[in-house]
Write a structure and sequence with these properties.
Blueprint (H helix, E strand, L loop, with lengths): L5 E5 L3 H13 L10 E6 L1 H11 L6 E5 L15 H7 L1 E4 L3 E7 L4 E6 L2 E6 L5 E7 L2 E15 L7 H4 L11 E11 L6 E4 L4 E5 L7 E5 L2 E3 L2 E8 L6 E4 L5 H8 L4
Parallel strand pairs: 1-2, 2-3, 3-16
Antiparallel strand pairs: 4-16, 5-6, 5-15, 7-9, 7-13, 8-9, 8-12, 9-10, 10-11, 12-15, 13-14
Length: 255
C-alpha cells in the first residue's frame, strides 16, 4: 500500500529523539492529524500509548524499535522506509472494553490493547467471584489478582503470569489468575472472543482491588465487566518477514 503523508512521533528517550530528527531530515512529514500513516519510534510502552492516542484516527501505525524489547515494533532503519511501508502487512487489533463500578458508585470505561488486570491494593489477598456470560464459573477465588488478555497482549503480562500464548485470529481471550491461593490448582481458561467476563469483588472495602486497562487504573472497584470491543480496531503495520503473527508463534518456542 502507498501512503501520501507520513507523521513521525517519538518517545522522550534520547535514542528515539535522535531517530526522529534523522527521519524528519530524510523524509517529508506532516503532523499526525494530517497523516495517512504514523511512524512510531520507541518501545512497546510508547507504542501502546500511541495506539490509544490515535485509535480513532483510523490510520495505520508502523513502529520502529528505539526502546528495549520492541515486541510490537519493527527493526529501526533510517533508509528504505517508503518501500517498507508499501510492503508492510496490516494487522487489526480489537481492544478489550473495561467497564467498572467503584465502591462510591462511580462508573468508568476504558479500552485495553493488551489486557485488563485486577490487582489487590493491600496486604490482604483479593476475593473475587468470576462470571462468564452471566453464569458463575468460580464462586470465590483468593488471589493477588486476575487478568483478561487479548491475543496481541498474551505475550506480555499474561505470559509473565504463566498464561497461555494465544495466536492472532484464534478469536480467544486468555483468563489468567495471578498468584491464586484458592483454588490452588486452577490455571485459568481460554474463552471465546465474544465472551463477557464479569468480576465481582467480594468484600471490596476490607480487601480493595484496582482494575487496570493498559494505562488506565481505577481503584477500589466492586464490579468489573470485560469484553472485546469490535467497534474499534487500530491497525499495526509489520515487515512481512517479521509480522506479529509470526512473532507470537515463535515466542512459544523460546527456551
Amino acid at each position: 500500500m502507498k501512503f501520501k503523508s507520513i507523521a513521525f512521533v517519538a518517545a522522550r528517550q534520547k535514542k528515539a529523539q535522535e531517530a526522529l530528527e534523522q527521519l524528519k531530515a530524510r523524509y517529508k512529514n506532516v503532523p499526525p492529524a494530517q497523516a495517512d500513516v504514523i511512524v512510531v519510534l520507541g518501545g512497546d510502552g510508547f507504542m501502546l500509548r500511541a495506539l490509544h492516542k490515535y485509535m480513532h484516527r483510523d490510520v495505520p501505525i508502523f513502529g520502529m524499535n528505539r526502546g528495549s524489547i520492541g515486541f510490537m515494533m519493527n527493526t529501526y532503519k533510517e533508509t528504505g522506509l517508503l518501500k517498507r511501508l508499501e510492503r508492510a502487512e496490516a494487522i487489526t487489533l480489537h481492544p478489550l472494553a473495561m467497564e467498572c463500578v467503584d465502591t462510591r458508585g462511580v462508573r468508568t470505561r476504558a479500552l485495553a490493547i493488551n489486557e485488563v488486570s485486577l490487582l489487590r491494593e493491600t496486604r490482604l489477598a483479593a476475593k473475587l467471584c468470576i462470571h462468564v456470560d452471566g453464569q458463575v464459573r468460580l464462586e470465590e477465588m483468593i488471589c493477588d489478582g486476575v487478568l483478561v488478555s487479548t491475543p496481541a497482549g498474551s505475550t506480555a503480562y499474561n505470559l509473565s503470569a504463566h498464561g497461555p500464548i494465544v495466536p492472532l485470529g484464534a478469536n480467544l481471550l486468555a483468563l489468567t489468575p495471578i498468584s491464586a491461593f484458592r483454588p490452588r490448582q486452577w490455571k485459568g481458561a481460554l474463552l471465546p472472543g465474544k465472551a463477557k467476563i464479569t468480576f465481582e469483588i467480594l468484600d471490596p472495602r476490607e480487601r480493595p482491588v484496582s482494575a487496570v486497562a493498559d494505562g488506565t487504573e481505577v481503584r477500589r472497584v466492586k464490579r468489573v465487566d470485560v469484553m472485546e470491543d469490535r467497534s474499534v480496531g487500530p491497525v499495526l503495520l509489520f515487515d512481512p518477514e517479521h509480522n506479529l503473527e509470526d512473532r507470537i508463534v515463535r515466542e512459544q518456542f523460546l527456551v
